[in-house]
Specification:
By secondary structure, the protein is α+β, with helices and mostly antiparallel strands. It is 53% helix and 11% strand. A four-stranded antiparallel sheet has the order 2-3-7-6, with no helix packed on it. It has a three-stranded mixed sheet with strand order 1-4-5, with helices on one face. This is Acyl-CoA dehydrogenase.
Length: 393
């Protein structure tokens, strides 16, 4: 597709569909080689999708989380890794939008994201703490108007390809592990020494290798709000909702393959009910449940945005956790049903009905922020805050 001669349709959905068409062409190669989906990300930039969440007065379009979730679903139907990169970028943007609009430097940075279509990476994991993003070992050092940080980041989302990285650390060397800040470092303000290789079963194109991060920048690039507030009021909800939307997109594409397979079988034997038709109906019902779960979560989040106390409440955290748990656990059975319908043609690689990539990518859903960790946190919140949540007597 020639990006210089795009169609006249500039609706958000149309722009995402054009990105999806490009992502689909390269999805299998991205997966097979474990390479960054450069073509899809370049298409996102050409369609000006990386700044859409940023408010209009900072150069963006002020798009809602619900609108962005729909784009995640559209792109994921073509390439889950491309959709994950888009989602993780938007999760980082949500932190800037929610907690940086009153800071002059961060407002300028948001304009730069829109103007230059910068891709934001994330570095919240660390050697010694694993995926527990609410703890840090490293601490940022502030001297005068400069800050320095060194972090053993076991995973940095598409680290080699990001234009800037938002990274967590303790607020100062004497701070406890949970007293954290998040800092923006631009590409020319840090070095990355690779320590781990992202050679995974699925989501291979996210290229989230591990690095020793060393950065130095003006101290004004530290976000003004504590990371505890950022995590509770933007990262928690946007992560669970956007990830759920893209996982749903994987399942939708698996359903489409199964539906196409059954239609082909029906044409070969007119007047008979093709095998798998009942299973297809079951898949449709299950997809509707997943979609309703996500939509309910999106409505809850966008209502909570008007009330900071609600955003930080235990009840809201439990609700968002439940969206993620339900979505991540329901998509694999749907894809497995599609595999049973398509049979050996779904099992084989290189056919129009191949589902191996879908299954491998979908297994990430229960592992990205481990469901066991989330369930453990949720059970603690339910016990301690049973009156607020109303889920225990």
């Amino acid at each position: 597709m020639d990006l210089s001669s795009k169609s006249a349709d500039q609706s958000l959905k149309a722009r995402a569909v054009r990105v999806s068409a490009i992502a689909a062409v390269y999805a299998d190669d991205v997966d097979r080689q474990g390479r960054f989906p450069l073509e899809a990300v370049e298409a996102m930039k050409a369609e000006k999708l990386l700044g859409i969440q940023i408010p209009a007065d900072c150069g963006g379009e002020g798009r809602s989380t619900s609108e962005i979730a729909e784009l995640c679903t559209i792109i994921a139907q073509a390439c889950a890794a491309s959709a994950m990169i888009f989602a993780m970028h938007q999760i980082k943007v949500s932190s800037l939008v929610s907690h940086g609009t009153e800071a002059e430097w961060h407002r300028g940075f948001m304009r730069k994201i829109c103007d230059e279509q910068l891709l934001l990476g994330s570095a919240t994991t660390e050697g010694g703490i694993g995926g527990n993003l609410r703890n840090s070992i490293c601490a940022i050092e502030v001297e005068g108007d400069r800050c320095r940080l060194e972090k053993d980041a076991t995973v940095i989302s598409y680290g080699k390809h990001a234009d800037a990285i938002l990274i967590t650390s303790r607020a100062h060397k004497n701070a406890p592990p949970t007293d954290q800040v998040m800092t923006v470092f631009l590409k020319d303000q840090y070095t990355l020494e690779q320590t781990h290789v992202w050679d995974t079963m699925g989501m291979r194109g996210t290229c989230s290798d591990g690095f020793l991060f060393k950065g130095e920048a003006p101290a004004i690039q530290i976000l003004p709000k504590p990371f505890a507030e950022i995590a509770a009021q933007s990262m928690l909800a946007s992560s669970h909702l956007l990830w759920s939307a893209l996982w749903y997109g994987i399942a939708v594409d698996a359903f489409t393959k199964a539906q196409t397979f059954i239609r082909a079988a029906a044409r070969k034997a007119p007047g008979t009910q093709p095998p798998g038709l009942v299973q297809l109906a079951e898949m449709s019902s299950e997809l509707q449940v997943i979609r309703s779960n996500i939509q309910s979560g999106l409505v809850s989040y966008e209502q909570a945005l008007k009330d900071p106390d609600r955003l930080s409440s235990m009840g809201f955290a439990v609700a968002m956790n439940n969206v993620k748990i339900a979505s991540s656990e329901m998509i694999l059975p749907v894809i497995n049903q599609a595999l049973r319908i398509c049979g050996i043609m779904g099992y084989k690689n290189g056919t129009p009905f191949s589902l191996g990539r879908h299954l491998r990518d979908a297994h990430s859903a229960e592992l990205m922020i481990s469901n066991d960790r989330i369930l453990g946190n949720t059970s603690t919140m339910l016990l301690v805050h049973k009156q607020e949540t109303g889920l225990l007597g």
